[in-house]
């Protein structure tokens, strides 16, 4: 392989780093499940009372090495929502239930994914697992990088695109906007994470996720909004004035 070919591919984490990462995932997810078990049961019961259908929502996603798995989330939409709309949701999506809007706002619907982490299908930190139909839009080279990592509950993209449904609201074709503007930007964040996987970077992202839920202003304090991973080239986000430094500039 030539030097030019080697430079095309970012250097990933060492095996030792991945072992530490997995041990942390097991310990942290097991502790979190134990502590949150009563809360999870209450949320499940309230979902059942709020609308017809199961408390949990399961969906096929693409995991490490391209292997499919079933992601587990609290149901936030009407039962059978997948049969009457796309996999993407916008802010005022009529399929979202009253309780579901609250769960989505505070990311409570993501908590059952702790079981996916414990089972080894996901990590606490990593690129968000994509549905198969959208994963197919990535190039083979980009899929190779994404498939080398366990998908995660949170990462740079999850933090900076936390209001993705609002960004898609009002778009004539949300799917095209997601494909051509958001997906390329997210990949830049995935690639940045791939280059910097480590225990402390994971810990920083977990703390950042919890902090931003409390107050988005804490992003400045945590130095996430100004991280190099948030700088995108104009051809990626469709701009024409150079780099953009904040997620607001990614809005269509």
Strand content: 5-15%
- Main sheet: strands, sense, barrel: 2 strands, antiparallel
Helix content: 40-55%
Strand order of the biggest β-sheet: 1-2
Q: What distance lies between the first and last C-alpha atoms, to the nearest angstrom? A: 40 Å
Count of helical segments? 12
Global morphology: globular
Summarize, please.
The protein has 252 residues and is mainly alpha-helical. Helices cover 50% and strands 8% of the residues. The strands form two sheets. The protein has a two-stranded antiparallel sheet with strand order 1-2. Strands 3-4 form a two-stranded parallel ribbon.
Can you offer a commentary on this structure?
The protein contains 12 helices and 4 strands. It is mainly alpha-helical and 252 residues long. It has one domain. A two-stranded antiparallel sheet has the order 1-2. Strands 3-4 form a two-stranded parallel ribbon. The protein is globular and about 45 Å long. The model is unreliable at 1-6 and 226-252 (pLDDT under 50).
Features:
4 strands, mainly alpha, disordered C terminus, 252 residues
Topology:
Blueprint: H1 3-8, H2 15-50, E1 56-62, E2 68-74, H3 98-105, H4 113-118, E3 123-125, H5 132-135, H6 140-147, E4 152-154, H7 156-160, H8 164-168, H9 174-195, H10 199-214, H11 218-222, H12 234-237
Parallel strand pairs: 3-4
Antiparallel strand pairs: 1-2
């Amino acid at each position: 392989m030539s030097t030019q070919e080697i430079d095309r591919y970012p250097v990933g984490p060492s095996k030792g780093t991945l072992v530490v990462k997995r041990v942390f995932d097991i310990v942290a997810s097991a502790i979190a499940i134990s502590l949150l078990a009563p809360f999870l049961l209450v949320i499940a019961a309230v979902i059942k009372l709020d609308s017809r259908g199961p408390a949990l929502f399961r969906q096929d996603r693409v995991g490490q090495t391209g292997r499919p798995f079933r992601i587990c989330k609290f149901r936030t939409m009407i039962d059978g929502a997948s049969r009457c709309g796309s996999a993407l949701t916008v802010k005022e999506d009529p399929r979202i239930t009253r309780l579901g809007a609250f769960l989505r706002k505070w990311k409570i619907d993501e908590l059952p994914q702790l079981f996916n982490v414990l089972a080894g299908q996901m990590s606490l930190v990593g690129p968000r697992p994509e549905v198969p139909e959208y994963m197919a839009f990535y190039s083979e080279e980009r899929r190779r990088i994404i498939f080398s990592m366990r998908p995660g509950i949170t990462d740079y993209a999850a933090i900076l695109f936390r209001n993705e449904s609002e960004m898609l609201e009002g778009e004539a074709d949300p799917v095209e906007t997601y494909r051509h503007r958001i997906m390329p930007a997210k990949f830049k964040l995935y690639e940045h994470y791939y280059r910097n996987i480590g225990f402390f970077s994971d810990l920083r992202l977990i703390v950042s996720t919890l902090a931003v839920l409390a107050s988005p202003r804490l992003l400045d304090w945590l130095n996430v909004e100004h991280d190099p991973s948030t700088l995108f080239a104009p051809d990626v986000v469709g701009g024409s004035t150079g780099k953009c430094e904040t997620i607001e500039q990614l809005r269509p």
